Recover the amino acids of this structure.
């Protein structure tokens, strides 16, 4: 899990079928020593794991990615220049235990990542 170490949740709001979370990135996390020294960038796999963790919080159970139908990385996240990121996850049960998810990582007018896919 990345929560509590790689990032900290600073705000969260949940409505039916959607959860909006603001996270604060830990710019001193060891992962940035290798990704990349002198120019830290949040790895795509960490963005995807963050979406997974936010969804699991909303559903109050562990979830696993089954299929990514769209995963677009639009802008890099430098944790020093952009320490806070807003994560929005919309979800709808397609079949028993199968969730259709649309998510984004943004801050103000910058969109870092867009995702659509299925979790169970």
């Amino acid at each position: 899990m990345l929560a509590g170490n790689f990032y900290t949740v600073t705000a969260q709001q949940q409505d039916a079928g959607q959860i909006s979370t603001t996270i604060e990135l830990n710019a001193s996390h060891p992962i940035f020593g290798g990704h990349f020294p002198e120019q830290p960038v949040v790895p795509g796999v960490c963005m995807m794991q963050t979406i997974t963790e936010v969804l699991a919080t909303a559903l109050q159970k562990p979830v696993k990615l089954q299929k990514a139908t769209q995963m677009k990385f639009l802008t890099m996240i430098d944790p020093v220049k952009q320490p806070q990121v807003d994560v929005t996850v919309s979800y709808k049960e397609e079949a028993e235990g199968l969730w259709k998810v649309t998510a984004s990582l943004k801050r103000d007018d910058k969109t870092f990542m867009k995702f659509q896919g299925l979790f169970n």
In short: The helical segments are 31-34, 44-59. The mean pLDDT is 97. The domain at 7-119 is CATH 3.10.129.10 (Thiol Ester Dehydrase; Chain A).
